[in-house]
Request: fold
Amino acid sequence: MLDNVTINQLRAFVAVCDQGSFSGAARKLARAQSAISHAIKALENAFDVELFERNTRKAQLTAAGRSLLPDARAVISRTEEMKNRAGAISKVGVPQVSVAVDAYFPRTHLIDCLRTLQQEFPTAAINLRITTMQGGEHLVLEKLCALAVTIQNVPEVNPDAIERHWLREEEMVTVCAPSHALASTPKPIPVDEFGRHTQIVVTDNQPGAEKTQQGVAGKRQWLVNDLGAKRDLLKAGLGWGHLPRHLVSEDLASGELVELERRAWHMGTLTFMVSQRRGYDLSACESRLVALLGGP
Reply:
């Protein structure tokens, strides 16, 4: 019998509860009082329970009615949400955003941007890939992603097929654990001294990825393909490495990592670019995401 329950019956049930009477519900819903009474009776038959006490002058809920009221409200709420979503889809369709974002990009900022995008484009379907080095541009070339946020000094996969645009910059710092030998080395530290110790380097799974490593001081390297793993290895004292300041600010403040001063070795800022196929026209949703990612 539950298949016979209608949204109008649930609306009548909630309206009677909110207004405290059948007549009040009829006025609120602009329906005849007899129609409200019929809807409640049909709902009780479908549920095989009584929703209201029959021996009182006011619309007083039974125990079953009190138990079912939150469910009725939830169904109505979801129905309204569905109607609003359908209305938005009928106007603008279902925007599709597929983007690959380099692991070094500030995660908190990315989440804030996606939250804003969701508010402005509530029907948008997001396909987010977290990549390293040239991985994002490979996905763009394969048309698995429309956009890639990549690092400027990582060589382009195919300059003839992909164009890049400046997005934002982030500060890089060189760090190690306080227990590491470099932490007690007199500052500033020359490149040769860095080269004597194991460096933790992020790479990817693409062929030739080792050719695109940046800021490497020597041959003593441990390679990882996950930025979180690199941070954990550094905190464990297993090596030294470069990381974005935004990622390690709390570690530096707590003393779990220490910043190392370099001598005659300029790292510069980490510059992020947006990569897309040449001639590709961004949708309104994609353009908005790019603007948000490049914003403060």
Observations:
- The mean pLDDT is 86.
